Every structure is written in structure tokens, then in C-alpha cells.
Amino acid sequence: MKIAVVGTGYVGLVTGTCFSETGNNVTCIDIDESKVEKLKNGIIPIYEPGLDVLFERNVKQDRLHFTTNLKEGIEGAEIIFLALPTPPGEDGSADLQYVLKVADDLGPLLKQYTIIIDKSTVPVGTAEKVHNAIAKNAKVDFDVVSNPEFLREGVAVEDFMKPDRVVVGTESEKAKKTMERLYAPLVRQGNPIIFMDERSAELTKYAANSFLATKITFMNEIANLCELLGADVDAVRRGVGTDSRIGKRFLFAGIGYGGSCFPKDVQALAKSAKDVNYDFRILNGVMDINQKQKTKLIPSIKDYFNGDLKGKKIAIWGLAFKPYTDDIREAPALYNIEELIKEGAEVSVFDPEAMENVKGIMGDKITYAEDQYSVLEDADALMIVTEWPVFRTPDFNRMDSLLNNKVIFDGRNLYELSSMEELGYEYFSIGRKS
Ligand code: UGA
Predict the structure, then answer these.
(1) pLDDT mean over 205-222
(2) Domains within the chain, CATH numbers bracketed
(3) Distance of CA 252 to the CA centre of its chain
(4) Which ligand 1 atom is at minimum distance from the Cα of 257?
């Protein structure tokens, strides 16, 4: 099949590359000339494990192409994916200007029946808007399909190639057949393609992300309660997660969820609900609790230093919003750094991938270390914000010789309480005894 993908961000690039891997001829289109130039020169602008191998193979085999020219890029395409940004507007709703601008441009360019697919996370009713924008100038028949993505950063290629399910919103039989053909190589193990109407598909994406954000937040609240009641959230997690109705995943308490998806999507769904006069109270709670959770360890750090952080050097392990990404959007680390600086502390940081991105925001307000040990030199405390595997089994002897105090504030519950006690550390974590 010939496919075009408009937008070469994280979703567009993974979609384009993976569909070229299943044998399609894919052209990725982006208005950003420098990005397209990089891609043409084999440089992938995002960090996503496994993407490079697929990218190189398919470029080499002439199945994956890049252009800034929309007309040229969609030439002969049976399917056009829209993978464009939908940033939150001032009122929290998703801003559709990029999606609708491309839809406007596409109308006069279509030469044969084409399926236009919304891959971006878009509010309910967008497929209709995209349809109307294209229809204004289209001279041929076309269908607009909603096909939300459920990729997790860091494992996006795996999620794409082996999806739990594929959600397709369309009532057109013709479009359904093409979508079945397109996804056939990815659903061979019996994982379903779930067909529904466009509006339900659009809502499914928001419901899934908001549910997961709520699940995490619920456990964060249980963790906070564990601290007050003298219980252990890890034990509670194991106890409840083994109930198959609840499930083991996304039950890890910590210092809040971040990233480009959960915060934005929870906010957008709450706004969509409000627009139809529905007060989605759980979501308001989720947003509020998560924001507070991000800086939950700050009071414990202050208490440890008798309320005064002036001149104290705090080392931070982990800046990305989660491991295996360099993404720092809504990352708890940023909020903690701001708070610590406000309290007069000196902050030094280390992250395996996200240092450059943080430098771009924090500049010389903090110091940047070469590795996880040098960041500890002369530090008065260690704070752990992201659960990179490299932090899970560190050389504690080496740490002892570098840190001024044997104290760790751990926002991701990386260590057993008993082993920290044995090692002689004062250890503050989430939802467990300290
Ligand atoms: C999320 C969804 O998981 C994907 O299915 C979805 O496609 C994607 O958003 C999107 O809409 O594009 P992602 O933001 O990459 O994916 O990250 P997750 O792995 O879901 O983690 C989100 C946040 O939740 C992270 O900050 C993570 O640390 C936190 N989290 C996750 C917890 O605090 N506890 C957990 O048990 C799990």
C-alpha cells in the first residue's frame, strides 16, 4: 500500500517507520525543513529504542521517504495519516489548528478515493470537523477514520508492532476493509481490531489514558494513607494487583505521573466534559492530587535539614518523566528542582538521556554531572526521581564515600527498606515506613 504520514513527531515517525516495516511504501511529510533534512540524512530526532534499526532498514530498501511537500508526499497514497500536534489551549482543550489546517490543504489535492486517518489524540467530534474541512474543496470521494494510538514512549516500536488492540472508528465498509488489510500483519496473534463509530474511538483514547492516570493516582493516595496508618504500599499493591479484575500494572506509587500524554489528556477530557455541562469530578481530583504528589518529598527533605535548605547540595538521579526516554515534559524532576532552588538549595543532576533537554530549560541554575556517582560528590542528600534501571543496584560503598550524609529521598521506591537499614541509610520513600 502507498501511505502518507503528515507530521513526523514521535507518533508520526513511529507510525511511518513501522508501516514501512510491514512492507508498505511510506512517505512522511513535515513542514519543518531542518527536521526533514535530518531524516533524509539518516538522523532520527527522537530517542526511541529500536526505531533506528527499522528506520535504517526501510530507508535502505526505499520504502521510507521524507518530504516537506504535502502535494508530492500524498501523490498516489491510499491512506493519509494525520499525526499532528494537539497542544492544550489556554482553557485545557486540545488545540486543533494544525490538524484542521492540513485538512484544509488536503481537500483540493486529493485525486482518488483516499482514507484520511486521525492518529493524533483529538477531542470527540474532530473526525467530523476534519471531514468538513476536506469536503469544502474535495472533488473525489474520501473517508475520515479515527484510529488513536496507544504507544508508550520508550517501548513505542514494540507497542506498535504488537498492539493489545487496534481501535478503528469508521462506519464506512470500504474504509474498514482497507484498515483490516493495513493492520493484518500486526494482529496475527488474535489481538483484536475493534471497529466502532468515530466519536467512540476518539473518546476511547481519552478514556484509556484518563483511566490509567486515575489508577496511578488512586495508588498514590493509598500510599499517602499508608504513611499515616503505618502500612506498606508495596504490600498493598501486591495484595490488590493479584485480583485479575484490578490487574498488576500501573499500580506503582511514586511522585506522580508526567509526560506529554496523561497530564494533557486528563485535562482535555475534563474540559470536554465541562463543555457539555458534565462535572467529571474524579478527573479534577486526579489532576489536583497528581500536581501535589510531584513535590511530595520536599517537606521531608526540609524536615531532615531542620527547615533550612540554604547552601545544602541536593543531588538528583533521574530527570526524564520515566525511564528510556529523554522527554521531560511535565516531569516531576523539574518541579522538584524549582522547589529546591526556591528553598536556597544547590542542585546537581544526572540522567542517562535527558540532560540536554534540562539544560535547555534550567541553564546554569543547576549543575550537570557526567555520571551517577560524580553527581554525589559533596552532596548533602540524594533524591531519586526517575527509576532508570542503572539506579536500582548502585555501588553503595562508592556512594558512601561521596555523600556527606547517608540519606536518600526516593520518589520511586527502588530499594527494600530492610537493605537500606542494613546499609545504614536514612531512607525516605513513598507509602512506606521511613
Ligand atoms: C501513555 C500511555 O501509557 C500510552 O498507552 C499512550 O499511547 C500514551 O500515553 C499517549 O497518549 O501517547 P506514556 O506517556 O509514554 O504513555 O507513558 P507511561 O508509560 O504510560 O507512563 C506515564 C506516567 O505514569 C509516567 O510518568 C510514569 O512514571 C507514571 N507511572 C506509570 C506511575 O507513576 N506508576 C505506574 O504504575 C505507571
Answers:
(1) 98
(2) 2-196 (3.40.50.720), 205-293 (1.10.1040.10), 295-428 (3.40.50.720)
(3) 16
(4) 26
Between CA 195 and CA 203, with CA 197 as vertex, the angle to 5 degrees is: 100
Question: Quick one: 125 exposed, middle or buried, by C-beta within 10 A (0-12, 13-18, 19+)?
Answer: middle
Mutate which of 261, 291, 324 for ligand 1? The one with the most ligand atoms within 8 Å of its CB, which is 261
Q: Exposed, middle or buried: residue 173 (CB in 10 Å: 0-12, 13-18, 19+)? A: exposed
**Residue 89: predicted pLDDT:** 84
With a 6 A CB cut-off, is 38 part of the ligand 1 pocket?
no
In this structure, the number of other CB atoms found within 10 A of the CB of residue 283 comes to 23
**397 CB-near residues (< 8 Å, 6+ apart):** none
pLDDT tens sequence across 104-143: 999 999 999 999 999 999 999 999 999 999 999 999 999 9
User: Could you tell me the pTM of the whole model?
Assistant: 0.94
Q: What is the secondary structure of 379-430 as a DSSP string?
A: -SEEEE-S--GGGTS--HHHHHHH-SS-EEEETT--S-HHHHHHHT-EEE-S
d(CA 417, CA 428): 9
What residue's CA is closest to ligand 1, atom 26? Answer: 257
Active site residue 28: no
- Whether the CB-CB separation of 314 and 379 falls below 8 Å is answered with yes
What's the pLDDT tens digit per position in 349-359?
999 999 999 99
Q: Cα(212)–Cα(324) distance, rounded to whole angstroms?
A: 19
Q: Do residues 171 and 197 lie in contact, with contact meaning Cβ atoms separated by under 8 Å?
A: yes
Residue 292 has pLDDT above 90, yes or no: yes
Q: Is 89 annotated as a binding residue?
A: no
Distance between CA atoms of 111 and 80, rounded to whole angstroms? Answer: 13
- In this predicted structure, what is the pLDDT of residue 75? 97
Residue 311 and residue 341 in contact, taking contact as beta carbons nearer than 8 Å: no
- Which grid cell sits at 148? 488513536
How remote is the CA of residue 397 from the centroid of ligand 1, in Å?
A: 33
Angstrom distance (rounded) from CA 294 to CA 408 = 17
251 annotated as belonging to a binding site for a ligand:
yes
Query: Counting atoms of ligand 1 from 1, which one is nearest the CA of 412?
Result: 33
Q: Is the pLDDT of residue 92 over 80?
A: no
